[in-house]
Amino acid sequence: MSFFTLSSDIILIILEELDPLSLFHFCLASRAIHAIVTRSTTLRYHHELALCGMRDGPPGSYSPRTRLLSLLGYKRGWPTLSPSAEDRLFITPPTIMGVSGNYLFHASQSPLNNGYEWVLHVYQLRSFRMAPQSRLPYYQHNVPFEIRKVAIDASQELMILAQLFFPPQQQVVLIANSAITVMLHIRNLYICQDHPRAAQPRLSFQTDWWGDFPPGQRLSIEQVRICGSLVAASIRLELETGEGTTELVVFNWCRGGSPVRTLTGDLLSFDFIDESRLIVASHPDDDGSDDSTTWERRSDGLYANEKGKRPPQIAIQEIYKAHDHDFPSSRSYEFAEAWSGVSFVQLCPNHSSNISPLPGTLFDSSTSCRSTAVLLEFQPHATPSGCSRKIIVVFDQSRLPLRGERFDTMRWEDWQHHCMVLNLPDRADAVQLCGRRLTFFENLKDAQDVATAIDATSRVHVLDLNPRTASFLWSLSRTDPPWRWRDSLTALSTVFVHRGSRYVRTSTVDAINMTWMNTTEDSLVLYDVRLHSRSSSLLSKLGFKEREGQCHIRILTFGKEVRESA
C-alpha cells in the first residue's frame, strides 16, 4: 500500500511524530511530502529547525507559529548581518572584560578606605529566542580580590571568579617553596554569595611556580570553563621569549576537594565535550610529551630549554578513567607533518550550549551539529605551501569517538577528509566558534598603527558553515552572489566551495572602529577602546595595553522579537 493512499490526517500524524532531522530527510526524498510540510506551521517549524541546525526548546506558552517566525528572523539575521537590536555601553576601560554564557562582564579596581576592592559589572545580553526584555538586566558585585577570569553558567545560577594568589613577600622569604595558588571562587550569579550547591566556597590549586617573576615573565589564567558539575582552568607561565608552559586542572565544584585531574603542556587549550570528556589541543615534542620545554630556575628567573617539535595535535581526554591524575587519551588526532613549524595553536571553544536549554527558550543550537575548531599560526619562514599564515581546522564533534573506545592515534592522512581547512587573513583576530558559525575580525592597519592609533580600524567576518545557507540567501535575493545587505551594518556575502559544498562568508563593507570582539548564539559584542595619552595597564588578557580613555561597547542582537503567545 502506498504511503499517499493514507488520509491526509494520518499522514500529518505520522510526520508530526518524526524528529526534525528525519523530517528533513523525508522532504529531501519526496517533493510531495515537502509540499505537505510547507502547508503545516508545526511541520514547517520542525523542518526549519533541521535546516538551521537547531533543536526545539522546552514546551512553553509560545505557539508553533510564534516559534517559526522567531526562527525565520534568526535564520535571516546572521548571514545578512542584520541585527534587530543594538545596545551601547560607555565605560572607563576596565582591567578585564568579556562574555561568558549570555552575559557580558567587566571588572576594575575601586578605591576603598585606604585600600582597593574590585567591582564586577555583569549584564545579561538580549536573546530573541526567549521572552523580550526592555533593557539589559544588570548586576554589580564588590569583591576583595583581583579578578583574573569570569565563567558563568546561568542554568545553574553559577558564577566562578578566578584569582591568582601570590604569597606575601615575607612568607616567600621564610618558606622557600611558597607556591603561587589559583583560587576559584564558587558564587551565585545574581547575589555573588557562596553557591548553595558547592561543598566549598573556593577551590585551590598550587602551581609549580613561586616567588617574584623578573620583567618579561608573566603568569596568567588563560581559560575557565564550566560543564555541569565540573570546572576546568588553565594557567600559563610565559617567558619574555614567548616560550612557556600551561597547567590544566579539573575540579568537581559540587564535591570540592583537590583537582579531579591535571595536565601540563605547551600551547595547550581545551574545551569540554561533556562531563566525562575534554578535547585538548597541544604542540608535543619529539618524544611525544605534551610539555615541550624543560625548566631551570636560577637566581634571576626561569629559563626554558626548548626541545624539538612534532606537528600539533588534538586529543580526547577521558576525565574519570585517569590514574595518578594523568589523563588517559581515548584518541589523538595528528595534524600534517608540514605543520610542525607553528608559533601558535589554540582550540576555539564552542560557545553554543551543550546542555538542555533553559525554560522559556524557543530553540537553540543542536548538540548534534556542534563543531570543533583549531586555530594554527605558522612562523613566517615555515608557512606550508597552499596555506596562509593563519589557518583554521574545523570538524564535527559527531566524528569524535564514543566514550570507552580504545586509545588510538589517527594520522592526518586518515582523518583530513573529515574536516575543513580554511585560510584566514594574516591579521585575523578574536577567532571564535558558536555552533557552526565562525567569526573573527581583521585589522586593516598594520600592527604598529593599530597599537598607536586612537581608533583601530577593522572588518568583521562571519563564516556560516551550514551548507544550506547559500541556497537560502539565493531565495532571498534571487540573484547570484555576491549579495549586498544594507542595515545598521552594510555587509557583503560571498560563497566559497569546499569539497563540493557551498558555504557563505559575510563581511562588513565599512570599516569599524574596534579592538576586540565576542560572539554568542544571539549577539556580536564589539569593543572599541579609545585610548588617551597616559598609560596604565589595559586588557592584558585580551592582548592590549591599558590607557586612560573610554571603552565603547556595541551589542548587536540577531533574531525576531517574540511578542505573541498561544
Automatic annotation (TrEMBL):
Q: Where is the region Disordered?
A: 283-307
Q: What is this protein called?
A: F-box domain-containing protein
